[in-house]
Amino acid sequence: FSQADAILGAHGGLTSEAWAGGGLSILILYVFLIRIKPTFIVSLSLPGSMMAAVIFMYFMDMSLNLVTMMSLVIALGMVVDNSIVVVENIYRLRSLGYGTIEASKRGTNEMALAITAATATSIVVFLPVFFVDKGQLNTFLRQFATPVSVAMAASLVIALTAIPLAIGKTADLNLRGIWRVLRGRRVDAADKTDTWTPETGFNPTRWMIPFYAACLRATMRWWLASTLLLAGIVWLTIEYPVKNLGRQGMPTADERRIGIQVEFDPNFDMAKADEYMGHLEEEVGELLTQHKLTLG
Question: pTM (2 decimals)?
Fold first, then answer.
């Protein structure tokens, strides 16, 4: 049995999942933002955050293993949050009449404290990991917590610096104007026709607000019944799902292997043991042949 094939297969699977996850996250951004340019600006946080995490892993003498790659895959869906908040707020201010530069400055300043606090609370939950007793569990947790924490911290820096800069340089440009800027060409009037606002995107909250308002009015009117209902839901959640969850050290894995353990009597000599194991191997080989399996 070659463990190299299983390890390479797992690495290849995680790499494919990472590309698919990144592509899906960009697709979801486009579904909500509708326009290509805001999607492209927000997507800048993906490669920047991943590069920061990989560089940090290099200097910390870490490797790209199954745990660290899984950490990076999970981080792919988290690093765009800060940029989305900043981009939406900047475009909201632009729709209110602020200039491009002023909207970028004001929009970023307004969201700086909120996204910093949100990122800090997401990172700080991994802090106790570094105080776990030395051992295999400590190694796994550190290898998982470090890349995702660094990626989220890098996404915060990108959201406060690169994102407003990109909007400030390209807010009034269409795709043709952005391409001319990247090529170092001068921009003319035909390149300044982009007028995106958050209201032009897909905003499901517009349809949720009336329902939310009705629920809020009902809750305030019957506050005692609402409190008792909420307490009942919390009690049911703790009493049944939480208490009945199974507990184990490591999750059960389907390794597609069957182990056979044979214990001999102390009076067995090596010749008898060898003869017995030979018969056992023949019988197991016949079973494997019938089921088209291999003996590893």
Answer: 0.66
